[in-house]
Write a structure and sequence with these properties.
Blueprint (H helix, E strand, L loop, with lengths): L8 H8 L5 E6 L7 E7 L4 E6 L9 H13 L16 E3 L2 E7 L11 H17 L13 H12 L8 H13 L9 E4 L8 E4 L2 E5 L6 E4 H12 L1 E2 L2 E2 L1 H14 L4 H5 L1 H22 L11 H12 L7
Antiparallel strand pairs: 1-2, 2-3, 3-5, 4-5, 6-9, 7-8, 10-11
Helix pairs in contact: 3-7, 4-9, 5-9, 6-9, 9-10
């Protein structure tokens, strides 16, 4: 989430006219992908107005909205797109946009023991709910994105002369042909960072930001979650990871093949976020946005070269 496209209160009010008068309207600066506004109405209801920017394609929006409904219908708390006059896709300032229900709660930085247990149960529920053959979207953020980003940096070589980038580039060449073909694929969140999971007290209250969701392996989604949650100041939080994993495995059983490919996907996920973060620092420079540090995921990648978390299964 971020603010790239500035819209006025009157422009927003025109869209919200069928459901109420806006009493407060503010941009949300966290995140780096789409423009988001928090909207308060005079009936005390709250909504998120999301304007989709370059990386989110309009043709993918029905998939995202249908997937959120699938999760919601299976007991996973997540935003739902609001329909007005039987439509849930709109245009504001030439941007495709949607109105989403508001999820109560807030993120946590260092989860306590009870929150780790709730995370395990909630993400297991998310994965149980994602097995639906009627929904499909290719994961564009792995090999397709790697190729796109590295090709663009070839044309921008003077600004990407980082030893970390060169090291990751050499490993992309090693890992690109290693993606397993025999793992089950479901509809996953694919961006399970701390700011995308909300809590009320010690319980997960909901998931947000499904705009990287796709059909891919369970173990890739789990790897992204582990990389995002269990490294603090470059130190792996082993006890927190084990507490989460025990809770998760009580609810969701991984196959032997998935467990055997965990280390591979931990490295793949680290590359994915290193590359997109370093890309955003160089190319995604418009709008009111807080960029995140790519070196964090370089260090995580290096950790997984030396350590194999598969040993915890």
């Amino acid at each position: 989430m971020a603010v790239y496209t500035q819209i006025s209160l009157s422009e927003a009010q025109e869209l919200f006219l069928p459901i109420g008068k806006i009493t407060n309207f503010e941009g949300i600066k966290e995140g780096v992908e789409n423009t988001n506004y928090l909207v308060h109405l005079n009936n005390e209801k709250k909504f998120i107005l999301t304007l989709f920017e370059k990386r989110t394609k309009e043709e993918d929006l029905p998939y995202f909205n249908n997937l959120m409904k699938l999760f919601h219908d299976n007991g996973v708390s997540c935003p739902l797109s609001l329909s007005l006059n039987n439509e849930n896709l709109f245009k504001v300032k030439g941007r495709s946009c949607c109105i989403y229900s508001f999820i109560e709660g807030k993120p946590v930085i260092r989860p306590n023991q009870a929150q780790l247990v709730s995370l395990g149960k909630s993400i297991a529920k998310l994965h149980q709910s994602g097995d639906n053959k009627e929904l499909f979207r290719e994961n564009m953020m792995l090999l397709p994105s790697w190729k796109l980003i590295t090709n663009q940096f070839l044309q921008k070589e003077s600004k990407i002369n980082l030893s970390e980038y060169k090291y990751i580039l050499s490993n992309i060449n090693k890992l690109s042909d290693g993606f397993p073909k025999n793992l089950r694929r479901i509809n996953i969140h694919a961006d399970l960072f701390k700011d995308n999971i909300f809590f009320i007290d010690n319980e997960v209250s909901g998931f947000i930001d499904f705009f990287f969701s796709c059909t891919d392996t369970v173990i890739y989604d789990l790897a992204t979650f582990v990389n995002a949650w269990f490294f603090f100041n470059n130190q792996f939080q082993e006890e927190d990871f084990k507490k989460f994993l025990r809770s998760y495995e009580k609810e969701y059983e991984l196959t032997i093949e998935e467990k055997n490919n965990f280390n591979f996907y931990l490295k793949v996920s680290a590359i994915r976020f290193f590359l997109t973060r370093i890309y955003d620092l160089n190319f995604n420079v418009e709008g009111n946005v807080k960029h995140k540090n790519p070196i964090e995921f370089f260090e995580i990648f290096k950790f997984h070269e030396k350590n194999n978390l598969q040993d915890f299964f």
